[in-house]
Design brief:
This protein is an alpha+beta fold. The chain contains twelve helices and eleven strands. The strands form three sheets. Strands 1, 2, 3, 4, 5 and 6 form a six-stranded antiparallel β-sheet that branches. A three-stranded mixed β-sheet has the order 7-11-8.
Amino acid sequence: MLQTLFDHYLKQWALAVDGDAFASLNGNLLPVRQHGRPAMLKISQEPEEQAGNFLMAWWEGEGAAPVLAHEGGALLMQRAQGSASLTLLVNDGRDDEATRILCAVAARLHAPRAKPIPELVPLEQWFEGLWSAAAAHGGILEHSAETARELLATPRDVVVLHGDIHHANVLDFGPSGWLAIDPKGLYGERGFDYANILCNPDGASALAPGAFARRIELIAAASGIDRRRLLQWVLAWAGLSAAWMLEDNAEPGNRIEVAKLAASALSTAV
């Protein structure tokens, strides 16, 4: 029974079960209450997720969901109670609004803190999966790899990165606003964190006529990142995401198409 995974922390942190346990790609989760406050208990044995737990606590609720307790692979965080959803905004024809929200959250996460940063994964290490995929498949993946190597060799605006900013990882916390969950805990150029927006929340919206160009302009304006540099990060990221999908024997179609859109825009960028 999945819930038995949580028994130790239910006792240790004085939690009351407030819903059914469920599994996600990032771990096992259980809705709970602590002293009446809605919270989410998450347990993962993946080192990547455990590093993300420390980063969530480090942010102290500034741009990310407030952490109430954490220990090893267990994280207790405030539960989102708002009714809005960035994916629903996109589906409701409010893509610009969703994009601006994602940019605002990323900016809060990237803001400097007057304290030592936790142990994080260098962005160069994150891209290792792209090199072998580019060698095996060539084409747009090779272009993505070349661009990634260029970016990684000339970093700008290096910050603490979330690593997986997209519409399902930024939630409505009601009076507290929009806050991020599920960081990967990376360290590198801030442009990386904006690139994944262009691939989400799904292929249909990412590849809708005019959507790519519109999002690029919105993100560049909101972030202050040079448009060409942003396009390079999108090309690099989409190639990396496609490489991971190929490793998992999944169809990387929309990632490949986003990479091609970025490459095409770069060919005409000044």
